[in-house]
Specification:
The chain has about 600 residues and is α/β, with parallel strands linked by helices. Helix content is about 15%, strand content about 30%. It is globular.
């Protein structure tokens, strides 16, 4: 007999029977009959009048549905391929605050549920090779740009010209103005006795102005610890590349050539253009300094750390210095590592002009007024429509920043050597992660000024890992779109925490070989009868199968070379389990490793 304990959580915006239609949240959990085993990915439908509302049970069996209804009697249906459907009526009682528990009966009585999660294995990382703890270099350099008073606005005129700029500046009594010819924007500095809000509003009301926005500062933030000048850049032994299976990816692309070069624009600070590990991959003919509006991108000053050099080095190492891939430096910060949104916009416009494939943006701004009508967003949309993949740092202070916050941009959060989301990294709203290092522990090793090297941490370091992986994907599939690359990196990513299976660490090898977990076949072969049962991963990497009692060889396989055999380079897993009557297994963990 079907059992259902009727329990509801009801949140009302009005009173039942009068006033506005109340908002009701019905929550609960779905379990296998007479057990505490959750039924995962069950489809729950609630019908009220002519309307239907839907949800799905999570990995713990829980669900929640918010609906609006003036009815007190609702119809609920629960469906799952492995269980008999359940349909019943529930009565909404506003005086009760309870929890709905639903029990489903298996379609195959007498068999035992075997269920769990499948994912890629987490590589065992060397804690010493190519990396040092933060304490090894106690003198750290904070390169976060200093906050500046808001004194400038970005103006997009209807007709861009020197004469128009002068006329607008004069009418608004601007202290000064400068033009960004490639972006067809001008920047005005406000009079000293005028508030920035009043100044920007006056600009918006000017008949020659299409749009005006405050010119906020952009920030590239990271902390660095200097490495000895005698250090070498051995990317093959660095933990960050091992963590994302980059060493296997390099084997795949070693002999690949593209019909054209894959061009990666790095929007960042000045860099060391003479660094021996960079000069072979930098394209200085197309390099551009947005701030100076010339081609001077080299950083020759006597200072401790170069953010742009470090970021460029990560990309160069990630692509294994492949001869078909080039990095184009586009400088959007001045010599003091300070930049404005206008510089970022002009930098993206320059990348568009250069017809690049990928733009890495290891910088951002916490918030924007009217972000989706801002000039920055228009430029971002233009780049996305052109098919350019944009990778951007998600943010170092817990909140997702712009431009990573735009859906057209791949936001990249930071992970640690312990396969955790870094405590400083933005996480909410972020689905793609890459190694970014940690404050007290292992950082990211990369190139620095004067031919040297440095350790740094931050989402600034995570984004270039994704840019490099994207370049390797495009190297093998030149016609792949920017959206397809982002989706592929997510589909082939390793789940960091199954409490949130959508947050994933990039897996370069799985992405390049196009072997997502969805392609896995899970086999349960009974050792005596040799009868074989098969299961397949669901969207959140959960799997299940009902089995008769017995001893089983469990194997899982993703056929990388698609030859229907288990070969070197395939993803594979194998172990033996014993299935006993009514002893349900719901926590079997399958971790696929690269078959040797």
């Amino acid at each position: 007999m079907k059992k259902m304990l009727l329990c509801l959580v009801i949140l009302l915006t009005g009173c039942l029977g009068s006033g506005p239609t109340p908002s009701i949240t019905i929550s609960g959990a779905v379990y296998q009959q007479d057990t505490a085993v959750p039924v995962v990915n069950a489809k729950i439908t609630i019908e009220t009048g002519s309307r239907s509302y839907h949800s799905e049970s999570g990995l713990d069996g829980s669900f929640a549905i918010t609906l609006r209804s003036s009815h007190t009697l609702l119809r609920i249906t629960v469906e799952h391929p492995g269980y008999k459907p359940l349909t019943d009526k529930i009565h909404v009682n506003p005086s009760e605050l309870e929890f709905l528990v639903l029990e489903l009966t298996p379609k195959t009585p007498g068999q035992t549920l075997v269920a769990g999660r499948i994912d890629y294995a987490l590589p065992k990382l060397s804690s010493t090779a190519g990396v040092y703890a933060a304490s090894a270099f106690p003198a750290e350099t904070n390169i976060k740009a200093a906050s500046a008073d808001l004194t400038e606005i970005i103006v997009e005129p209807y007709i861009f010209s020197e004469a128009t700029a002068a006329a607008i500046a004069s009418a608004l009594q601007a202290k000064s103005y400068r033009l960004y010819h490639n972006a067809e924007l001008l920047v005005l500095e406000k009079p000293w006795d005028t508030a920035i809000e009043i100044f920007v509003e006056a600009a918006r009301n000017h008949p020659l102005v299409r749009q005006a926005d405050i010119n906020f500062s952009i920030v590239a933030s990271a902390k660095a610890a200097l490495a000895p000048m005698s250090s070498t850049f051995d990317n093959h032994s660095q933990w960050n590349f091992q963590a994302i299976y980059m060493n296997y990816a390099w084997q795949q692309i070693h002999n690949r050539n593209s019909d054209r070069r894959i061009r990666i624009a790095v929007l960042d600070t000045l860099i060391d253009i003479e660094h021996p590990d960079l000069n072979q991959i930098l394209n200085l003919d197309d390099a551009y300094n947005v701030v100076k509006q010339n081609q001077h991108v080299g950083d020759n000053r006597s200072r401790a750390f170069s953010h742009g050099t470090h970021v460029a080095g990560i990309i160069a190492a990630a692509v294994d210095f492949h001869h078909s891939i080039e990095i184009i430096p586009i400088v959007v910060f001045d010599e003091n590592d300070r930049g404005k949104i206008s510089d970022l916009i002009a930098g993206i416009e320059k990348a568009l002009e250069l017809d690049v494939d990928i733009i890495n943006i290891s910088l951002g701004i916490d918030s924007l007024t009217n972000p989706y009508s801002h000039s920055l967003y228009k430029t971002i949309q233009k780049a996305a429509d052109r098919g350019i993949l944009m990778t951007a740092s998600a943010g170092n202070y817990g909140n997702l920043i712009f431009p990573a916050k735009y859906s057209e941009v791949m936001a990249v959060g930071a992970s640690t050597i312990h396969y955790q989301i870094a405590d400083y990294s933005a996480a909410s709203g972020v689905e793609v992660f890459a190694p970014g290092g940690e404050l007290y522990g292992h950082k990211i090793y990369s190139t620095n000024l004067r031919g040297g090297y440095a350790y740094a941490y931050g989402t600034s370091m995570a984004a270039p890992h994704a840019a490099g992986a994207a370049a390797l994907i495009k190297l093998g599939t030149p016609n792949i779109t920017n959206y397809e690359i982002e989706q592929l990196l997510w589909e082939t990513g390793t789940v960091l925490n199954f409490a949130d299976p959508d947050q994933r660490l990039i897996n370069a090898y799985a992405a390049i070989t196009r072997t997502p977990i969805a392609n896995a076949v899970i086999s349960f072969r009974e050792k005596e009868s040799l009868v074989e049962y098969k299961a397949y991963p669901e969207h959140n990497r959960y799997f299940y199968q009902f089995l008769p009692p017995g001893s089983y060889l469990v194997s899982a396989h993703i056929d990388t070379d698609r030859n229907q055999f288990v070969n070197s380079g395939d993803w594979y897993y194998q172990q033996e389990i014993t299935v006993e009557a009514d002893q349900h297994i719901n926590n079997l963990e399958i971790r696929l490793e690269v078959y040797p």
